[in-house]
Every structure is written in C-alpha cells, then in structure tokens.
Amino acid sequence: MRLNRSTDIALRVVMLLASGGGRLTVDRLAEVLDVPRNHMAKVVQRLQRHGLVVTARGRVGGVAVPVGALDATVGTVVRALEGEDEVVDCEGPPCPLRGGCHLRTALREAQLAFLAALDRVTVRSLVATPAGPVLLGLAAGERS
C-alpha cells in the first residue's frame, strides 16, 4: 500500500512537533519539510480536525502536538488522513469479475494487516532516540 503525499507530510509534521521542539508555525513547518506553504496549511488543518495537533494564533502561536496525541498510533494517523476505503473500487464502474473474484478480499486483508502493523507503533516511539535529536535539530534549523 502506498500512502498519499498528504499522509506522508502529516506523519512527518506529527513527528517533528512531537520531538519536543515546541510550537512551530505553518511557514516554519513548510520550510523544514520542504513542502509548499499552502499544502502544509491544508495538512495541518486536517490534523487539527482529528485532534492530532493544536494551533494557536498570535505572536506566540503555532502548531503543537497535544500530550494525548503522543500515544496515538501511526495507524490512527494514517486512517485519519487516508480514510478506510478499500484499496480497489469494484463498484464504480462495476467490475465484471466481482461476482467470482477473490482479489478484493485478498487486498482488504492486506490493508487490514498493514494498518494492524501501524497500530503497534505510537507517535511517542517514533520520536525516541535516535530520531528525536535529529528531529529537534531540524526544528532548530540544523541541516545534517
């Protein structure tokens, strides 16, 4: 299964913010992750809608990960951004093989296994050493 670009960016945003570097602006996130600002704003908005980040306006504003989201699983983040639609759409337009095809079932089982594996990984574990210090360096403007 391949994640869409927005989900990839969302996972990186959550990791970066969860590393403990404090609040970052959408502009700073876009700069650090080399993503167009408008795309970053949309990703942050979706993450906020699902409670995976919080935002604050003003001079000391920015985007942060709430403490509770540290225990969210990667599977939760992926489901929030990707949805739970099936890998293939056998209904529109209707596939002539759907009556006797086993592909749909096999792909659904694979998708569920993929998500189950991601459900074993928390945001907190993603920012543990050695990744945490690297992420903090990125947030601070250091390049490796």
UniProtKB/TrEMBL annotation:
One Pfam family from the record: Rrf2
UniProt keyword DNA-binding, yes or no: yes
InterPro entries listed in its UniProt record: Tscrpt_reg_Rrf2, WH-like_DNA-bd_sf, WH_DNA-bd_sf
GO-annotated molecular function: DNA binding; DNA-binding transcription factor activity
Cofactor: [2Fe-2S] cluster
Keyword set, alphabetical order: DNA-binding
PROSITE patterns: HTH_RRF2_2
Protein name (database record): Rrf2 family transcriptional regulator
Lineage, top ranks: Bacteria, Bacillati, Actinomycetota, Actinomycetes, Pseudonocardiales
